[in-house]
Design a protein that fits this description.
single chain, six-stranded mixed beta sheet, about 10% strand
């Protein structure tokens, strides 16, 4: 490797893409093209970056399998940074296998971490956790190790494991100091801020209080009956009743829980669950049917008794009940609650779950996407929606320096 390529790689490793370009901008040999591609990606020109990396891969030739595999890994990271989640995963898997076969453990581990990051972004958290458990992070360089720890922290945050998330962020801070890349520090600070920001709102007997993430975790570990409006579920300890696809029953449960131990009038329940302005006999008949279904669904957790004016919710064994809601709720809060489970949803699936028209749901998703609260991947009928996973590590394009690829 000549001195200019080495100097350009070192500039990239130090977070100086312009310095790298100054050294190789006029060169068209394969290593220089690859370095130029990575530098352009760091500067945000993903289209030019992908073109340069593909040009480099072709220039390396069919016999340079290792170099071509490294270009494929770099292109995969650019796709992640650009949120092009339809990028062919088979190419990344083939590149990883090539790197493993030739003993490049560092870049093979990095390619595997890219596969995990994609799974996290598209909401396949269980699969991401399984693959993360199989990944040995020891060969990773400080920058890649920091991203690995951010993945661990992001999954822990999604699973409400704040202690594990804090530990991962502390390890990420340590490795980020070694990497000396400003983007990494910014990502860690943003993830750390999520731990101290209000995560939910607890409603008990009409009173409200904001909770941080560790307080939500403690609440879930208590024996309280929790009507979780953030994830559309009822939970008591380890017993969880998903209600994302039962919007009417959940609306009834939430209204009853908000007023417990007092009763709620039939007119109030009808207004909240059926959105009916005036309760007629057909509404009352439907309310009796839905209350019966709710009684059956939450048997063992709580009882619902009829009173003279309406119904009252009574948790079993004299336990307390609380409602957990978003810190600030708007008309699209139900959509966010469905997406909060971390899974990828189609707009048609959300429409069925929420009992709304697909057009209404699509309008809500578009509005949430503009404010950065949701993201999508795929097109047409294959389009899926998820909540962004904190931290947003993929926006920092941090391919290991080219010097480490040789």
């Amino acid at each position: 490797m000549d001195s200019l390529i080495t100097a350009a790689a070192q500039a990239l490793a130090a977070g100086d893409p312009l310095g790298a370009l100054n050294r190789v901008a006029l060169r068209d040999d394969p290593p220089a093209l690859a370095l130029r591609g990575i530098a352009m990606a760091r500067l945000g020109d993903f289209v030019r970056a992908k073109a340069l990396l593909r040009q480099a891969a072709r220039a390396f030739g069919a016999k340079a399998t290792m170099a071509r595999a490294r270009c494929a890994v770099a292109e995969a990271e650019i796709a992640l940074a650009a949120r092009d989640l339809t990028w062919p995963t088979k190419a990344l898997a083939a590149a990883r296998e090539t790197l493993e076969r030739h003993g490049d453990r560092t870049n093979a581990a990095y390619a595997r971490s890219l596969e995990i990051r994609r799974l996290v972004l598209i909401g396949h958290l269980d699969e991401a956790e399984r693959r993360l458990a199989d990944l040995d992070p020891s060969p990773l360089l400080p920058a890649a190790r920091t991203i690995y720890e951010l993945i661990v922290a992001g999954l822990a945050l999604r699973r409400l494991q704040t202690k594990a998330a804090r530990s991962a962020l502390e390890r990420a801070t340590h490795t980020a100091r070694q990497a000396r890349i400003p983007e990494l520090h910014a990502e860690i600070e943003r993830a750390s801020a999520a731990l101290s920001a209000p995560a939910a709102r607890m409603i008990v007997r009409g009173g409200e209080r904001l909770l941080q993430l560790d307080e939500v975790e403690a609440l879930f570990r208590s024996d309280r009956l929790i009507v979780d409006a953030c994830r559309l579920a009822l939970r008591q300890g380890s017993h969880v009743v998903p209600m994302a696809r039962r919007p009417v029953l959940f609306a009834l449960a939430r209204r009853l829980a908000e007023r417990a131990p007092d009763d709620v009038s039939r007119g109030d329940l009808i207004a909240h669950a059926f959105r009916g302005k005036e309760a007629d006999e057909s509404h009352r008949a439907r309310l009796r049917v839905e209350i019966g279904r709710l009684r059956q669904l939450i048997s063992g957790m709580a009882a619902i008794s009829a009173t003279r004016d309406g119904f009252v919710l009574s948790p079993c064994r004299d336990r307390n009940v609380a409602v957990l809601a978003q810190p600030a709720e708007d008309e699209d809060a139900a959509v966010l609650a469905c997406l909060a489970d971390g899974e990828a949803w189609s707009s048609s699936g959300l429409a069925v779950a929420l009992g709304a028209s697909q057009r209404t749901v699509q309008r809500g998703l578009d509005a949430l996407a503009l404010s950065g609260k949701v993201q999508s991947f795929g097109r047409g009928r294959a389009q899926r929606w998820t909540c962004p996973v904190a931290p947003e590590f993929a926006t920092a394009l941090l391919l290991p320096a080219w010097s480490s690829l040789d």
